[in-house]
Write a structure and sequence with these properties.
The complex is a heterodimer of chains A (540) and B (235).
Chain A lengths: L1 H21 L3 E6 L10 E3 L2 E5 L11 E6 L5 E6 L12 E3 L2 E3 L2 E3 L2 E5 L4 E5 L6 E6 L12 E3 L2 E5 L3 E6 L5 E6 L9 E3 L3 E5 L4 E6 L4 E6 L9 E3 L2 E8 L2 E6 L2 E6 L7 E3 L2 E5 L3 E7 L3 E8 L7 E5 L2 E7 L7 E4 L6 E3 L12 E2 L4 E5 L4 E6 L10 H24 L1 H32 L20 E7 L2 E8 L5 H12 L3 E6 L2 E7 L7 E5 L2 E2 L14 E6 L1
Parallel strand pairs in A: 35-41
Antiparallel strand pairs in A: 1-34, 2-3, 3-4, 4-5, 6-9, 7-8, 9-10, 10-11, 12-13, 13-14, 14-15, 16-17, 17-18, 18-19, 20-21, 21-22, 22-23, 24-25, 25-26, 26-27, 28-29, 29-30, 30-31, 32-33, 33-34, 35-36, 37-38, 39-40, 39-41
Helix pairs in contact in A: 1-2, 2-3
Chain B lengths: L2 H9 L6 H4 L8 H20 L6 H20 L9 H12 L1 H19 L3 H19 L3 E2 L2 E2 L1 H20 L9 H10 L1 H17 L1 H28 L1
Antiparallel strand pairs in B: 1-2
Helix pairs in contact in B: 3-6, 4-6, 5-6, 5-7, 5-8, 5-10, 5-11, 6-7, 7-8, 8-10
The chains are: A alpha+beta (540), B mainly alpha (235).
Chain lengths: 540, 235
């Protein structure tokens, strides 16, 4: 017994040491338990605001949270009862003001995929006002903007202008075309917005609109205004193109990130590279680096420097961070997984960020903020270890039969705890026994050879996305494509992984997948894919 | 869909297209299904309680046991393949006899599946546990009002494994190769092991208590039966 007790003590101490090492420079972190963090948190004074997205289970809903910046204590959370999908419209903080259309206090504006726009009191999360925009499967997914006393909302099929005081509609312009993550840009005279049809609209501040361009692709960012013209990073089939007004200035890789401008420099990224263009009378590439970034590029005031960061959307995660692209380095990869949300800062050395695991981190090199451990895991191990050390020897000594019963019960509990890992390990080995096969369509582009290809056999036809890379599991690539393509996915989450109920509300008799034409013996969470795998979902 | 079935379906989601074909049975409207279930449950209740209809206390114990058995499946649903009902069927079969044990098994299965969801697998589960109750009634698990623990542990292990394989037949469809079905069984072995462990825990922790609870009913009924048999012998 003493020997067993000694081993348990060693394990306990090792666990504490291991956990302590990972907390270096971390002020605090929170596992938000539900969904991704797909858009940058916001730091406003002593609060961090963050929203969750991308979970599709029956009961769970997205939340907006407020945490105390220094302690990590949750101040409040606002839960949408009706929104379930891809809630990735960036949070917008508005300061109190008096204007022609009325007065408003400090507000946190949130756009939802159920078409609602809510104005929340940042102090307590109470609803100040709410408006309902139109829904076509989804609602608001793009970045909203402020124009004096108006909130400019890129809705699903158009653009709306609403009084910040009470949400009263100034105008709504309906293009009759679907938008997805299509942020809006405010200029002196008008608003610029694109959509999934590749249409670029110029909307006057009275609501009249004209189509400036009709590109052959998808516009999924707020258009960039440069001195050389309007810059669009257009997503095309299998790649992307950078347009300056009507001209293609560069052919690029797949899945473009949301570009950003800082003075004359425009930062862009794809699954293959990150790029800096310098735009004056024309736009010229001045920097390029191989990397994978598909989300929010952000500008950060860090110390006395202005930095740019690119979320790395690969298994290693982290952010490329630096004063410029060529000198940038990967930071925070130790907290990383696939990442599309940008980093946010308070300009005083505090950074906050979240990842696709739904974990929010606050990091600081300042001593103003105390370091805190996440105690729950350590406490659980400590308590169970201490109980085992104290109780088991007593039981075995006095009553062997009872000792057997207790031992059996403890073994059973431990088996339950390790069961998911046990099943996955077992299934991995069993899957090697199933027959080999392949899956390739000769109509697919040659560029897709050697890359990851994703197919869903929907009633309306196959959705086929190729040229992907860096995904390690069926779940990761599925949720990535769903997010990129605006697919609605309903998923049930279990301890043993995730289970697809429906794609685009097509549930039928369930869905099953193959990898390279081969049926997997594991669920999508644990089925590993290669860099040249073809993942195919089809109705069961 | 019941979690343990869903769990297996999940793990094997890519392995067989049969997973949903396997649950295709004759389609009944919800009201028809309710009527059908009610009829079976009522019939089994009669089989379970007979000849205790005049003894309210015994009927209460039998009803409570059945509900507890069904509830145990519902409450433990999040735990993969933890099925205390297997040992309960063995013990009830041993103490109350084959008829009552089998009725208990079918009722507990149907009642719990009202919450966990019905499917083609319900037939296999109900028949599986009914057979286990029958086995329990035949292998002399009770001696002098006490459970024979070694025999119970051995039979629990064997029944748990065979039950899993029996229920696995619910996913079999015509045309499925033996190799694929073998892979399915092979994949399910951790689940079978979990079932075995759960049965062992139930056997050592709950079975003695369950025997005590039902022994009064058992011995009262045995006395009635003995009198009848004695009469026959005398006659």
């Amino acid at each position: 017994m003493k020997r067993i007790a000694s081993i348990l003590v060693v394990i306990f101490l090792f666990t504490i040491v291991a956990n302590a090492e990972t907390s270096h420079n971390l002020v605090w972190s929170k596992d938000l338990d539900n969904g991704y963090i797909s858009t940058s948190p916001l730091i406003v004074e002593d609060q961090v605001f963050v929203r969750t997205s991308g979970f599709w289970t029956g009961d769970e809903r997205p939340n907006v949270y407020s945490f105390n910046l220094s302690s990590g204590v949750e101040n409040w959370r606002y839960k949408s009862q009706t929104s379930t999908q891809h809630d990735m419209s960036p949070l917008l903080y508005v300061t109190a003001k008096t204007s022609a259309c009325g007065d408003w206090p400090n507000m946190l504006i949130v756009g939802w995929t159920d078409g609602k726009v809510t104005a929340l009191n940042p102090e307590n999360g109470f609803l100040i006002w709410e408006i309902q925009t139109e829904i076509q499967t989804l609602g608001v997914t793009g970045k909203m903007a402020i124009d004096d006393d108006a909130l400019i909302v890129p809705t699903r099929t158009g653009i709306g202008s609403y009084c910040l005081a009470d949400g009263t509609t100034n105008f709504f312009a309906d293009f009759g075309e679907i938008g997805w993550r299509n942020g809006v840009t405010v200029t002196d005279e008008s608003y610029l917005i694109g959509n999934e049809n590749g249409s670029l609209y110029d909307v006057k501040k009275t609501g009249e609109f004209t189509k400036l361009n009709n590109f052959n692709g998808k516009i999924r960012h707020a258009p960039i205004i440069t001195t050389a013209g309007i810059l669009i990073h257009l997503q095309t089939d299998g790649g992307s193109k950078i347009y300056l007004d009507d001209l293609v200035i560069s052919d690029e890789g797949s899945s473009p990130a949301i570009p950003i401008i800082n003075a004359n420099n425009v930062y862009l990224a794809t699954s293959q590279s990150i790029i800096t263009l310098e735009c004056e009378s024309s736009c010229v590439e001045i920097e390029r680096k191989e990397s994978t970034s598909n989300g929010e590029i952000s500008l950060i005031d860090y110390g006395d420097k202005s930095m740019v960061s690119f979320p790395i959307n690969s298994p290693g995660g982290g952010w490329l961070f630096g004063e410029n692209v060529s000198d940038s380095e990967i930071i925070f990869s130790e907290f990383g997984t696939y990442t599309t949300a940008g980093i946010s800062t308070n300009g005083k050395g505090v950074l906050t960020f979240g990842n696709d695991n739904g974990i929010l981190y606050v990091f600081s090199d300042s001593t103003e903020y105390s370091k805190q451990e996440q105690p729950s895991k350590i406490y659980a191990i400590a308590i169970s270890s201490i109980l085992s050390i104290l109780i088991l020897p007593l039981v075995f000594k006095r009553n062997k039969q009872l000792g057997f019963k207790v031992g059996l019960l403890v073994s059973f509990i431990l088996l339950i705890l390790i069961f998911p890992q046990l099943v996955n390990l077992w299934s991995e080995n069993v899957s090697k026994l199933s027959p080999e096969s392949t899956d390739w369509d000769d109509d697919w582009p040659q560029e897709w050879v050697g890359t990851q290809v994703f197919v869903i056999e929907l009633e309306s036809g196959n959705l086929e996305v190729g040229g992907l890379s860096g995904f390690t599991s069926v779940e990761e690539i599925t949720l990535h494509v769903a997010e990129e393509e605006g697919l609605i996915v309903e998923i049930d989450n279990y301890d043993f992984g995730s289970w697809v109920i429906s794609f685009n509300e097509e549930s039928g008799e369930g869905w099953e997948f193959t990898v390279d034409g081969k049926l997997s013996s594991q669920g999508m969470t644990d089925t590993i894919i290669d860099e040249d795998s073809v993942v195919r979902w089809k109705p069961a | 869909m019941e979690a343990s079935v869903k769990f297996k379906r999940y793990v094997l989601s890519g392995l067989f297209m049969v997973l949903t074909d396997g649950v295709h049975g004759p389609a009944l409207a919800p009201s028809e299904m309710l009527l059908f279930n009610s009829a079976i449950i009522a019939f089994c209740y009669v089989l379970l309680c007979k000849p205790s209809f005049t003894k309210k206390g015994e009927m209460f114990v039998l009803s409570a046991l059945t509900i507890a058995a069904a509830a145990s499946r519902i409450v433990l649903e999040p735990l993969p393949n933890v099925q205390p009902l297997t040992v309960m069927c063995l013990v009830i079969g041993a103490t109350l006899g084959a008829r009552r044990g089998m009725a208990f098994a079918v009722m507990a299965t149907l009642l719990s599946n009202l919450f966990l969801s019905h499917g083609y697998w319900t037939i296999f589960q109900a028949t599986g546990w009914a057979i286990i109750a029958l086995v329990g009634s035949k292998i002399n698990l009770i001696h002098d009002k006490q459970i024979v623990m070694k025999k119970l542990i051995f039979s629990s292990v064997v029944c748990s494994i065979l039950f899993g394989w029996w229920v696995s037949l619910s996913i079999y469809k015509i045309g499925m190769s033996g190799e694929l079905f073998f892979l399915y069984i092979l994949n399910g072995l951790p689940f079978d092991f979990m079932h075995v462990m759960a049965s062992l825990v139930t056997a050592v922790w709950l079975a003695p208590w369950l025997v005590n609870l039902t022994s009064d009913i058992s011995y009262a009924d045995n006395r009635e039966t003995s009198v009848g048999e004695t009469d026959v012998i005398i006659a």
